[in-house]
Write a structure and sequence with these properties.
8-stranded parallel β-barrel; 280 residues
Length: 280
């Protein structure tokens, strides 16, 4: 990869998918050893929507001791049990709402400025309009909680082949929700999480997505297609994509949210020179 294209961006490594061959509390130090100073996480406590103070303190200590900044955190996502978020799921209404202040407080204590709220799957027998109304109510609460700590709220499109029951499977669908949340709150802090892997799996024109929606991006995540491995293992032209992001004015970090092709995370960063891994 052309280092010039890669050098235009800062990077953050997702420790829920990378270094997950290690226990959670060892991953920040492993990321630091690989040269990274920023990381992000899916909701790191499984189905616990309100983890104990001791569990939260242990996570804070792991990041502090490693000297790694937590740049992004999911609200309760239930990914550990195969769900795709809890925002629009009626049976999870109370758990999600109880989780909002917990996640926001944890983010505030770690200086985390982006909170991701996965929309949730369609539920058989439930009117989609009912789910969408609940999602908007919950996302408004989440956006306000994020605003109180100076953070943005991220809304993400996933891909239909891997998440067939998830309704936001295009950039346009996710941006529509972003716009509805911002209209409801007046805060303007809801943003689109542009995951280039998911959009590519959906067959979207990535160049067109960047040109059309870059001003709505709150974060960008990457993995190569089709295997969701590191850049250079698949079909995507990351030199071109990085250059397009820079040209479109995207100045945020790029999240590395891929599975290492060899199963060893530390061996999956050769595409990114070590001097570019420290966040800017």
């Amino acid at each position: 990869m052309d280092v010039t294209a890669a050098s235009q961006h800062g990077y953050t490594v997702n420790l829920s998918i990378l270094f997950n061959e290690l226990p959670l509390l060892e991953r920040p130090a492993a990321a630091a050893a690989a040269g990274f100073t920023a990381a992000e996480l899916w909701w790191p406590f499984g189905e616990e929507h309100a983890p104990s103070r001791a569990e939260q303190d242990a996570l804070r200590k792991a990041f502090g001791d490693a000297g790694v900044q937590l740049t992004g955190l999911n609200f309760l996502d239930d990914l550990s049990k195969g769900a795709r978020g809890t925002v629009s799921v009626p049976s999870e209404r109370e758990r999600f709402r109880a989780n909002v202040p917990v996640a926001a407080e944890l983010a505030a204590s770690l200086g985390t400025k982006a909170l991701n709220a996965l929309y949730g799957n369609r539920i058989e027998g439930v009117d989609p309009a009912e789910q969408d109304a609940l999602a908007l109510e919950n996302l408004v609460l989440a956006a306000r909680a994020a605003h109180e700590i100076g953070a943005i709220l991220l809304i993400e499109a996933l891909n239909r082949p891997e998440s067939p029951d998830y309704p936001l499977v295009s950039a346009a669908a996710a941006v529509d929700v972003v716009d509805k949340v911002n209209a409801a709150t007046g805060l303007g802090n809801a943003k689109f999480l542009c995951d280039l892997y998911h959009l590519a799996k959906n067959g979207e024109d990535l160049a067109a997505v960047i040109d059309t929606y870059a001003d709505r991006f709150g974060h960008v995540q990457i993995a190569d297609t089709p295997g969701r491995n590191e850049p250079g293992t698949g079909e995507l032209d990351f030199e071109d994509l990085f250059a397009r992001l820079a040209a479109a004015g995207y100045t945020g970090r790029i999240g590395l949210e891929y599975r290492p092709s060899t199963g060893v995370s530390a061996d999956s960063f050769e595409w990114l020179p070590r001097e570019l891994r420290a966040s800017r």
